[in-house]
Amino acid sequence: MTLSRIDLFVVVGYFVVLTLFGAVVRRTRGFDDFAVAKRSVPVLMVFASLCAAYIGPGYSLGFTAKAFGAGFAFLPAWFCFSLQTCVVGIWLAPRLRSQVGAHTLGGVMMNAYGPTAKVLTGIVSVGLCVGLAGVLARAGGTILAGAIGVSLPIAIFLITGVGVIYTLTGGLKSVVATEGLQFSVVLISMGAVIAFAGHRIASPQNLDQLAISLTSSTWKSTSVFEFVGLMLLFFAGEMLIPPYANRALAAESEGASGRGFVMAGIFSLFWFAMMATAGIQAREILGSTSNPDGVLIQLAHSVLPSGLLGLFLVALAAIVMSTQESLLNAASVCLTRDLMSSRWPDRRQLAVARTSTVAFALCATWFGLRAPSILTGLLIAYSMWAPTILPALVWWLVGNRKGEFNGVLSIVSGGLVSTSILIFHVASGNPAVAIVAGLLASISGGLVGSRVMRTAVQP
To answer: Which in 13, 219, 323, 443 has the greatest CB count within 10 A?
Structure first.
């Protein structure tokens, strides 16, 4: 891909502005500021940062690629993510925000199930965040390498390095602020892609017929079990992963936390529809022989004028970077609060969080050069997170009685079953098998633990 001088100027200028905005304008004043932005994030910033976090490569490049071959067939499954985000906003996010002393999900699990559950949650959270950060480093590096013509290792280093600069100086506050900026830029540039592509298509009727044909053929070839499995993956897979939970904990009030999630869930309906539309437009303009994984970038390169193309590419790469740095920030906070002493002085906790951010960034850079595809990485993360942490966390948040044994047994049971299935590739035909089996094991473990505890306290 060859960019004009105007596009290259936009790319370089955007990264300079982003770095200055994140590093200079937003400075951290203590660990509480670094971890949860002193719990002062307003509702609009909760909304914008959540949107920026989920419209990264998986929900833009990946969804456009799926629509390129399947039309609108998978929209109902994608909308399950929208439903999940609204459910979290209505019932769970305000309850998370009410946990005033908690900086992480591990802190919430400590209140619910004790120190063992806290440590287990911390281990899973750190592993999940660093692994996903590596996958995103590769995705963002691939975009940037194609945009400015550098090698993939250099692009991954730039993507990770620039984000680490403003994460170190500003913590979550800086991440949220830059995500809000990038959300606006990506939304404008993506709207431009669809508008210019629509202008390029001579006959809208042909586009409608293509969408109907792709959608109906995909529905006929997809089993009900596979489709239900995808719906479950999108509903439960990302529910309250650490970066999302941190937004709930950092909101200025319980109401702001809940409304931010609900607004982000409603917006995702429109975003997924936009991605599906872009995929079908790409099929009409580029033809069926194009590589599905790169059709969004190919479409933008085909229809956008100089200047707008550079803005689109750099915004897409940068929003990947923000999602990555959000994960690194969450990992460092989880390490500091869940796996080390929360009684350390504030200055020492801040130093540990900053040091671990750099260490995790190096790990993510290394892993980014060896990471699987973005879709594979996401499915592995979904299959690990939801069965391990989600049942015990939701059980506590909706008001059920706490107990150390049932929480720990739920976490261990779900984690062992889902990990075993992934290792032995039993779910290779349908990744939903791992998450379904893991969730059932986690729920069963929690119920058995509750029964044992009730039996133990009876005279």
So the answer is: 323
Q: Please identify which residue in the block is written with the tokens 């609060």.
A: 337
Number of C-beta neighbours around residue 273 at 10 A: 16
Domain co-membership, 341 together with 381: no
Domain residues for 390? 373-459
pTM of the predicted structure, to 2 decimals: 0.91
Side chain identity, residue 236 = A
Let me know: does 93 contact 277? Beta carbons within 8 Å.
Answer: no
**Which of 452, 421, 457, 456 is closest to 436 using CA atoms?**
421
Core vs surface per residue 203-242: b (16+ CB within 10 A) or e:
eeeebeebbeebbeebeeeeeeeebebbbbbbbbbbbbbb
The answer on 214 and 77 residing in a single domain is: yes
What is residue 2's three-state secondary structure?
A: coil
Report residue 193 as tokens.
């892609």
Query: pLDDT by residue (tens digit) across 20-41?
Result: 766 565 567 789 888 998 899 9
Q: Which residue has the tokens 């923000």?
A: 322
Model confidence pLDDT, tens digit, residues 266-300: 999 999 999 999 999 999 999 887 778 788 988 99
Out of 329, 352, 371, a domain closes at 371
Name, in order, each residue with C-beta under 8 angstroms of 266's C-beta and a sequence gap of 6 or more: 82, 86
435's tokens: 């998450």
What whole-number distance in Å separates Cα of residue 360 and Cα of residue 134?
9
Measured at the CA of 309, the angle between CA 307 and CA 314, to 5 degrees, comes to 100
How far apart (Å, rounded) are the C-alpha atoms in residues 243 and 324?
A: 10
